[in-house]
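A brief tutorial aside. Many learners find it easier to grasp structure tokens once they have seen a single protein encoded end to end. The record that follows does exactly this for DUF4440 domain-containing protein. Read the sequence first, then the structure, and try to relate runs of similar tokens to stretches of the chain.
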Amino acid sequence: MQMSWFDDFMHRRVRGGACTLHGSTGRSSMRVRTLGFLIIAGVASAPSAFAGEAPKALREELLRTTQALVDALPTGDRDVWEKSLTDDAVIIDEFGRIAHKADTVASIHAFPKGLSGSIELRDPHVQQYGDTAILQVEEYERETVFGQPLVVRYESLLTFVKQSGAWKLAGYEDVTLPTEPPKLTVTGLTLGDYQGSYRYAPDRIWTVSHEQGELHVLARPGAKPNLLQPIGKDIFMGSDDERNLFIFRRGADGKVNALIERRKFNDLRLDRTG
């Protein structure tokens, strides 16, 4: 689940070397997506497998199982997870942390006082490949952290396999979906300080401009401008799907001389050229 309403719960879990369904709000990992692609490719290429929309009864069963799993987390009901997972199940959260059945079940505890929440399953899609089924679903999480309401959205991929006539969860991965963050009022900003051209290669130039109190960055001619939302002095967040950080650097003279785009835990530096 998410750190936003799993704060203490998640920290206990991570220190123990395990993770359950989700971690804190964050971004998707290549490992999560790669595992999902490998699972799909594997079942799709199996000689006895066939791809097709799952029957309504199976779709409803997998949704019931998934809803029961996420409902069991706030209450600390380990039995639901114990019964629903295969013995070799793999659970990967949006940070790429990997856990297996024993780790996951042992890590489940009721939320401490002050933390609460629920998850609504939205827009489900179920594909069946013989004795394997894949559920793609959005998990819409409403959280309350000591009276503060939070909303986190996840896109999840669950892989079920049929064992002894029962559908069991063998793989669970999720990624965080970008949502509109709260706007912050940052005083003392002079948007004109940032306006100009920034280069990271001979023919790769970004243009930063401001208009009507808003700062935008244009990565190439004809592209959609990316609105930069201030979160601190010289620090902004993009408004596109990636929500990267844009950090303006200043020289000894106090003038902006570079732009850093922090993306996926890496920094892309652009030097100011005009």
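Self-check: Confidence is low (pLDDT under 50) at residues 1-41, 43-48. If you spotted this yourself, you are ready for the next section.
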